[in-house]
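User: For my dataset I need records formatted as: sequence, then structure tokens, nothing else. Please produce one.
Assistant:
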Amino acid sequence: DGFTVNVKLARQLERRRLAVVEGGIDWGQAEALAYASLLEDGIPVRLSGQDTERGTFAHRHLMFHDPGTGETFAPIQHLPAARASMELYNSPLSEYAALGFEYGYSVAAPDALVLWEAQFGDFVNGAQIVIDQYLVAGRSKWGQTSRLTLLLPHGYEGNGPEHSSARLERFLQQGAQDNIRIANCSTAAQFFHLLRRQALDATARPLVVMTPKGLLRLRSAASSLADFTDGRFEPVLDDSTEDAPRDRAGVHRLVLCSGKLYYDIAAHDERAKAIGVAVARLEQLYPFPVEAVAGLVTSYPALQEVVWAQEEPQNMGAWRSIRHRLDDAARAASSVAGVTYVGRPWRAAPSEGYPTAHQREQDRIVRAALGL
């Protein structure tokens, strides 16, 4: 009572209320539902990062600001049925210090879900020492485990080399002996289930999430309430678009990709011309879901080609770390010899510096993936 929510934000919140009934639960709402459900389960949640209360892309809005009084209010900290606390802080642009603190906090509070978010995923390189010395090696060196979760905005939107890549390849290169988990979700419900699994799994491991930018409000990436109540996190998602082949026996080319690129390919203007082409998503990159990918490949009985498509240059992204796994899965289908790469060629910088060059290259990648 007596608190005034910003008029523009009030409209967004009302849409969220309707989305629960009508569908279209977006990324920020799915994340809030995950945290709220964990708090009611008695699991503390701590979220910090750069502009985290609002969300770098104005998508989260866990903290409200009264435009008249300047007072703040976080509804998620006042849930009637909550049995645990929610800590929510904007941290400074000092990734090394912030991530080092959150790692220590996660070790000291093993039952809590502790998350740190970079303003852009690229900025995590400022905390590389913490990642190398503690996050990925702590269990091997000291038997020290952690549930620390890194939310790293990742995806090529034409914003240049410093705002595109969270350096997925670095984390995959350091993934060994079941030391971390790495995911690149493509729907709001998948993110919801991933966060809950991270908090509830009896085996504590750090989690690195390549979170999106363009998907935060993309209608195709939104989910219905049933996706939350009846579903679970799936490491692999099959083709589910309107243009997906109806006859699995008619599919001769399977395109595998991860994250945002799926929608660039699946929703391309000329997708309908790609007869016999299915597009599937790899949602968990490490530990690699060997059986799930092999099962996907063998579910297409007439398969002739398997393609790995990525936005990143060939010397970056997931390709070099998972190629052998993809080849093994492709050979599960006797008619497929191996996997073909589609993406940017080898580059020194992660992306183009000009939006026009980005759009041209992005379109080339999508067309090549579809065989157009």
